[in-house]
Amino acid sequence: MLRSLLILLSVIISLPGLTQAYFQQRVEYTIEVKLDDKEHFLRAREQVVYVNNSPDTLSYLIFHLWPNAYSSRSSALCNQLLRNGNTKLFFAEEEDIGYIDSLDFKVDDEMVEWEFDASHVDICTLQLNEPLIPGESLEVSTPFRVKIPSGKISRLGHLGQSYQITQWYPKPAVYDHNGWNGMPYLNQGEFYSEFGSFDVTIKLPSNYKVGATGDIQNEDEIASLTELADSTLNWIHRMEDSARWSDYAENMKFPESSEEWKTLRYTQDNVHDYAWFADKRYKVLKGEVETPYSGDKVDVWTFFTARNAKEWARSIEYMHDAVYYYSLWNGDYPYKHATAVDGTISAGGGMEYPNVTVIGNTNDALGLETVIMHEVGHNWFYGILGSNERRYTWLDEGLNSYNEQRYLSTKYPERKLLSKEEPGFFSSLFGFDKYNIKDQYYFMYLLSARHNHDQKLDLPADEYYNINYGTMCYAKSAVFFNYLRHYLGDEAMDAAMQSYFDRHKFSHPEPKDLEKVFTESTSKDLDWIFQDAINTTAKLDYKISRVKKLEDGYRIKLKNKGRMNSPVHVAQMDGDSVLRALWINGFQTDTTISVTGHSKSIKIDPRLIMPEINRKNNRMRTKGVFRKIEAPQVRLLGGIEDPTKNQLFVTPILGANIPNGFIPGVLLMNSIIPVKRLNYALVPMFGTKGSNLVGVGDIYYMIAPYESAFESIDVGVRGKRFQKKASDPSLLYNRIEPYVRFNFRPRDYSGYWNHELTMSSIWVMDQYTDVLDSKLVKDTTSFYNRVEYTLDFKHPIYRSDFTVLAEQNNDFAKISFEANNITNLANLLKIRSRFFVGYYLSNVTNNAAFNWRMNGQGINTDYSYDYNLFDRSGVDGFFSRQMIGNHGAFKVPTAVAQSATGLVALNLKVSYKSYPFGIFLDIGESFEREAAYNVGFFVGLIQRHLFVYIPFAYSSNIQNEINTNGLKFTDLIRFEYDIRKINPIKLRRKLSF
Q: Is the peptide bond before 674 cis (omega within 30 degrees of 0)?
């Protein structure tokens, strides 16, 4: 027993030693670079002093060579761009790619062996001749040359002679307690670099204006830029007075480069990256801001072109306010200047680097201010607090977006959602005027969370689905930290953030560091944010279950319907006015509280701060009947969700087909964006030819399982009713289809695959005239059970989808497989291919309408009324030529090779580049060994939703059929239009994912 206690005691004593003390390497750069603006090259030399502050002896160094990310289709950058649907690098011309070469690494002036990483051409390893022991340093030197890629690909690049020089030099990867952090360059997923100093010399033609990291050491250049800033300000005043902005908007030609050269020198300490931007067309503005705590003066500069001068006229104000508010809330800006430059980049609306940020094109003042402020803010969350952005994106983008939301709410407290100044007609029409500008982040979060497509915040950047990178890392982080601020109060929140800043500036903090600061600073249990909100996809949803009147107030029962036990803000209300409010601690199931004083209603989250998945259950009136039911609201066209109303969106529509004539109606929906649990789109219509009530509809309830293999399970019913014969308005069909749809969660959100399974039963009630008595209308009812599995491969070069469909009826059971593919060959040819095979497992019917058809189903063979056809009666010469692209999908109308057993077919459509026309080929064979083919031209119209087919060559059996039936060439022209592709519920469901 004593021996065991001694062993346990020795283990406890040794535990502190297992926790490695924080260390941080240091780098000191000296770089000389010359710009070749004719061939778009950089020629440079670099010396890096690398200081080993770790407790480890290093036998090798890992360097990033990120310009090589632009060199190859096999790079991680190209692969990620493809996953996000971007083919610019994959199809880049030789002149548009980029790379780094002419490398000759030496360590302390001695040659060393080095090699590229086996998987990533933009990472290399230097083998040291002598190990680098703790506390020692060495100098790495190398010449290098960079071919500057097209600026349309990612962050490093040029557009003409406008240069964005970022991630351009060889840099050591970070070595920390996890070891080496070698990582390829990515577009989605940013940076992690060592802090140190930079001494950079840039040589370029003298008429370039440069915005860069670091303090410029050339007094003559400072004087020149200051003089240019004065002249730019005078020019702006003249333009404002004359309102002649448009005269200069297109004046974007590059002037000839000067024959004279200038050499600019910049120095900076305590930064971990270096970027510079050069353009001969830049206009310049200059200002100054005083930091709120130290009172230090910071110069603020903006560089912009004449095209965007109207928006950039107030850019110094935006820079001033950004530096001031970020300093006020987080800690003083520690550098001497902050700069924003106007540059068109493809990597989002802007991109940040120490001291300098590049801004993409914006079309309004608030948009520009938001991007400038956000990117300037990254000087704190990326620049000064240098967390590993690739691994912990929310520590960078999330905390910065929280500050962005606070900035907009502070500076524009009355600004409404999606409005520039005062809410306009459309803002009121669609209900945006109900929400403030801060609420955009909440609705962005809901876009993913309501669909149950959301991902945890604590994921590496490259594991996010493209849209989730914004809705999670930016929006979710913003709304939850804003929630935390309102719970703690501004004073406590700012104290915690400033403590975090002071403890960890110029270092590499991790999530545990932020959590520790907040826990110590506030003395509160904050697991609900640092564990639940960040490490899970748990949703927040509190409900008022009951309000009981007491003599001096109310007893309120609250229920937690979500999975987060976070604080709840409860208020007593008089209309929209808050009378009294309090925060209560979170709870797991339900709780009861008592409040004093009287009010007209009790409301959770009166100021719309809590990011709940459902706000519909947040209010209850204190007296009356139906105290939870909200008033109805009817809106024309559509609108944003308002949980205080039972909304109905009404959109007048007009349809038409041959049997029904013109069909006026209304589209009735209960939600547009975001999706709700219960969703419907009902379209009651009136057929003018037969005076019949017709229409379509779809209603479903979405179940969102937590951490399940299914993202969602939709239980619903859809249906339609139409007149089917122009000659007899009494003949209608009714189709009702209850269904269950299982939407599988992708195994890898950064991959290409999505799949779903749908089970349904189709109930068709059809009417037809008796063969012997045409005045006698008979009814028939049929049932069809289906199971459909679809698999999508969303690759922009080789996009494919696969469908397996099994169908059963009293008379048959059949199964089919269909594969569709769109292949982009060298960005020259687009090949659309379709393979189909259908087979009857059993078939006791002799009704030819159920046969597999080589030319697809038609007006008389769409037995389950799956498709919407313009002319089911077949009386119109044009509209009766509508084809359905299923089964064999031949374009020529034919009965050849139809089968009661099975058939196989291959369909090809080939077009040149993005032209909407091309050649088609269909070949197929029935299981009875009858083969056929047809060839022709096609034209795609209305964004390829409508295709017109003109066949000109056929197999002999089809030619014989054409001759026998006396068909003319024009009789063979058909068109395909599937209106189901614009179903509003389907479009909304597929909008983002």
A: yes
Q: What is the mean pLDDT of residues 717-744?
A: 93
Residues 631-669, buried b or exposed e (16+ Cβ, 10 A)? eeeebeebbbbbbebebebebeeebebbbbbebebebbb
Domain termination residue (choose one: 513, 535, 557) = 535
3-state secondary structure of 576: coil
In a domain, residue 887? The reply is: yes
**β-bridge pairing 356-359 and 812-825:** unpaired
Tens digits of per-residue pLDDT, 833-870?
A: 999 999 999 999 989 999 999 999 999 899 999 999 99
Residue 904 within any structural domain of the chain = yes
- Long-range pairs of 154-160 with CB within 8 A, sequence gap ≥ 24: 154/69, 154/70, 154/77, 154/81, 154/89, 154/185, 154/187, 154/345, 154/346, 154/347, 155/187, 155/345, 155/347, 155/351, 156/66, 156/67, 156/70, 156/98, 157/98, 157/345, 158/40, 159/343, 159/344, 160/254
Note down the domain range covering 454.
425-535
Of the candidates 30, 514, 29, the one whose C-alpha atom is nearest the C-alpha of residue 272 is 29
Q: Tell me whether residue 339 is in a domain.
A: no
Q: Is residue 907 part of a domain?
A: yes
pLDDT of residue 751: 84
pLDDT tens figures, 145-163: 999 999 999 999 999 999 9
Strand partners, 301: 286, 339
| Mean pLDDT value across the chain | 93
| 501 and 476 belong to one structural domain | yes
Which of 546, 540, 545, 554 has the alpha carbon at shortest distance from 582?
554
